[in-house]
Protein: Alpha/beta hydrolase
Organism: Lentzea atacamensis
Amino acid sequence: MNVVDRIRSATREHVLVAMLGIPRLLRHPVWRAAEPNQGNGLGVLLVPGFGFGDASLALTATWLRNRGYQPAGAQIGLNVGCTSELVERTERRLEQHAEATGRRVVLLGQSRGGGLARLVTGCKGS
């Protein structure tokens, strides 16, 4: 088996392990014990990882919503393509969500989405 085949096999194995772990996650107390007012209506913009869209963060959105946050997807489609264009689209969506919630919004990115979130904030932690 060559290197590429080993990487593909390992990737499939990791995805399978992650998928098999979802029922266990959903039974865990951190998922089940929701405090509905914990988030106090704070907006959260979810930015997906490389090659994925908003649906990949559906469990995260549900978890946040059950705790009183207002999650929204970045609506950037699949997270592939020109980084500067994705940053601009994420920034526009951030502004829309901030306007809709009437306050500052938290950016929560997974993998490449985290990198895009940092670029949107200018790496200042703002």
